[in-house]
Design goal:
It contains five helices and 15 strands. With about 290 residues, it is of the alpha+beta class. Helix 2 packs across helix 3 and helix 4 packs antiparallel against helix 5. The radius of gyration is 19 Å and the shape is globular. The model has no long low-confidence stretch (mean pLDDT about 95).
C-alpha cells in the first residue's frame, strides 16, 4: 500500500482557503519544498521582529562610533553589553551553545564567530566583521557589518569588503516572492566567483525572528529554482561569507571554545548580513 507523503503546508482549520494557501499547495504538489505555516509571520510578530532589528542596528551604530585603531575586540563587546543593558534587550550570542561573549568580532582571515579578547587590538588596515543578534521581548534581530580600521587598507582587502556587500545586495534582489532560496545563492555565487573569490559553504543564513536560528537554511551558493519556496511573511537572514581564496574553512585549534572559523588558506574573509522580511513585492530589510 502506497502511503501519501506528509504535507508541510496546512490551511488554517475553520478558515477559507486563501490565495496564498493555493499558491503554496500548488508548488508543493509539484514536489517543491515549501515552508510550514508557522514560518509565515503574523503582523504582530513582524512588528516585534522589526523593533528588534532596529535595536540591533542601533547597537551596530554604537560600535561604528567607537571602532578605531588601538581598541580591542573586548572593548567592542563591552559596548554591546552596555547597549543591551540600557535598552533592556539581551545579546543572543552570550552563552549560546557555550559562546562566551555578547558579539562576534572576526578579524582578517577569521571568517566568523571570532571571540572578543583584550589581546586582540585592532590595527590600521585590519578588516573586521561585527556580527550580533539581539533578543527584545522574545523577538530577534540579526545583522553584521564590515569595518575597515583606520579607513585605510590594501586594495585587495577593500575590494573584498566591497564585493561582499554587493553579494548581499544581489542576493536580496534575487529574493522574490514565489521564487526559491536557490535563486539567492546563485546570484551571490555568480558575483563572487567573477572575482575569483570562494563562497563559504560550511555556514549559511537562516530563518530568524522568534528564535536566533530557525528554518530555513539560506545557502549562499547554488542553482536557480532549487531550495525552499519563498513565501510572503517569511523572515530570514542573508549573510554571505566570502573568502579571498578558497571557500574551505577550518576551526582555529588555538580557540579553547572551538568557535572561531578561519579561511582554509588563511587569506582574508568578509561578511555582511541583514534580516529580511519577504513581502508580496520583494524583501524588506528589518535590520536597518
Amino acid at each position: 500500500m502506497m502511503m501519501n507523503k506528509k504535507r508541510r503546508w496546512h490551511c488554517l482549520p475553520g478558515q477559507p482557503v486563501t490565495e496564498l494557501d493555493k499558491q503554496v499547495m500548488y508548488w508543493e504538489s509539484k514536489g517543491k519544498l515549501v515552508p510550514t505555516r508557522d514560518m509565515i509571520r503574523t503582523p504582530e510578530q513582524i512588528e516585534g521582529i522589526r523593533i528588534a532589528g532596529k535595536l540591533n542596528t542601533q547597537c551596530l551604530d554604537a560600535v561604528a562610533e567607537m571602532i578605531k585603531p588601538g581598541i580591542s575586540t573586548q572593548d567592542i563587546d563591552d559596548v554591546v553589553m552596555k547597549f543591551c543593558e540600557d535598552h533592556h534587550c539581551h545579546p543572543s550570542c552570550l552563552n549560546y551553545e557555550g559562546f562566551p561573549k555578547a558579539v562576534c568580532t572576526s578579524i582578517n582571515e577569521v571568517v566568523c564567530h571570532g571571540i572578543p579578547k583584550k589581546e586582540d587590538v585592532l590595527q590600521v588596515g585590519d578588516i573586521v566583521n561585527v556580527d550580533m543578534t539581539l533578543d527584545y521581548n522574545g523577538y530577534f534581530g540579526d545583522a553584521s557589518r564590515m569595518f575597515i580600521i583606520g579607513d585605510k587598507t590594501t586594495p585587495e582587502k577593500e575590494q573584498l569588503v566591497r564585493v561582499t556587500k554587493e553579494c548581499l545586495d544581489l542576493g536580496a534582489e534575487a529574493a522574490q516572492p514565489w521564487g526559491f532560496l536557490g535563486d539567492i545563492g546563485h546570484a551571490i555565487q555568480k558575483h563572487a566567483e567573477k572575482y575569483g573569490y570562494g563562497v563559504v559553504r560550511d555556514l549559511c543564513g537562516h530563518g530568524v525572528g522568534l528564535a536566533m536560528h530557525e528554518e530555513p537554511e539560506v545557502l549562499h551558493y547554488g542553482h536557480r529554482g532549487t531550495g525552499m519556496l519563498l513565501v510572503p511573511g517569511m523572515t530570514f537572514t542573508i549573510e554571505p561569507m566570502i573568502n579571498m581564496g578558497t571557500w574551505k574553512v577550518f576551526i582555529d585549534a588555538d580557540d579553547p571554545y572551538g568557535w572561531e572559523v578561519i579561511s582554509g588558506d588563511e587569506q582574508p574573509s568578509a561578511q555582511w548580513e541583514h534580516t529580511f522580511l519577504m513581502t508580496e513585492h520583494g524583501v524588506e530589510i528589518l535590520s536597518e
